């Protein structure tokens, strides 16, 4: 079966489709029958008690990885959360795969306007191929030149501005502000000749060459930045969730919850101060033997370049929602007379159905689905100028709802599992931590960012609905675990990190 799964999406025989479903050669199976099949596979596992059982299984995985894994449940060097009273001007850097953003952020305290956070100035720079081709120190010199464009060079004896960086690439962090540079991937050549060197020194040397009055105080990943930015506004924040093209989460846990080996060779001064720690969960990697899987999930996994590596992400993130719908549509065309059996040429290409396109189907409330029809026809025109029927369009919308609905339920389940883990650890009598006396722990805020949470129609509200059901099964009230969007969290979170380290 696996051998047939990894072939291109073509019928392997006259009688069976790529998923092993009997076609009966005459396509006598109706779209209604296929839709019923999809509903059973995507909705049946979503009963609240079933989701709660999944949450408990995920918690068991989390506990195991807190003790043993070197690729997930990774402790950062950040061991305090903001008080919300930090003030000042800070330079925030957000280095992504295609964009470098620089912001001058003003913090005034959470009791002031705009939650105490204001972007005074921000500029984005495209990281195109010529920039990705820059080798070694040249890349960091390019960064320093862009920083100068935003904040200017030093004037007189001005005090240096505290700066922090959200870095979307691997590093082996050695302190809150330093780390050994590792291969960046995504076509970047910046590590050539400097791999293993301290990213702090590389960036600061480039800034000193331009006489920039800045001091790098912290390096964080996007999930930690999201948690910090919301924690500045709301002290009940102990979790974050990134859900866009990919997914991840950060969680604030007692230091003693992780195996000592996880901390490497940190100085004793760190251990003397740290009672709790921000942990990068790498949440996408969990759930291989827990999450429900349809035949389309199995196909996606079997044909993936890294099968089984990120099972949760494969079911919920923006990169894969459209792909799962595409696989169902392929089966519908081959076995259930979707589009009268006509295959749009581009639809046969893996990952050609963008999640933004299926989002249009869910946002189009018209009876004719005219907007969705135009969006689909633009990306996937049918042969010979044909157009999808009304039944075809409503089939696509219903499949999209089923795929995104399951994703919302699984995201909620994973968040509930992290909340339950955190709650059990901070209330355990065997754990010495600084969170027990915090009355805000009765309510938990999950700081969120990412295009799926922010823009996919109805996704966040569905996710919140499942969280409410899971909270009540756990003996909590509806709304005890609340999802809150943390917009611009990469820059705000970096600024908060810089502020926290400046006051430490």
Automatic annotation (TrEMBL):
Q: Which molecular-function annotation in GO is an example for this chain?
A: mannokinase activity
Q: Which UniProt keywords apply?
A: ATP-binding, Glycolysis, Kinase, Nucleotide-binding, Transferase
> What positions does the domain Hexokinase N-terminal occupy?
47-232
EC annotation? 2.7.1.-
Q: Output a single Gene Ontology CC term carried by this record.
A: cytosol
Hexokinase C-terminal domain location is 239-499
Family annotation (InterPro entries): ATPase_NBD (IPR043129), Hexokinase (IPR001312), Hexokinase_C (IPR022673), Hexokinase_N (IPR022672)
According to its UniProt entry, the protein's GO biological process terms are:
glucose metabolic process; glycolytic process; intracellular glucose homeostasis; mannose metabolic process
Q: Please give the Gene3D superfamilies that the UniProt record associates with this protein.
A: 3.30.420.40, 3.40.367.20
Q: Which residues form a coiled coil?
A: none
Q: Does the keyword ATP-binding apply?
A: yes
User: Into which family does the record put it?
Assistant: Belongs to the hexokinase family.
Q: What name has this protein been given in UniProt?
A: Phosphotransferase
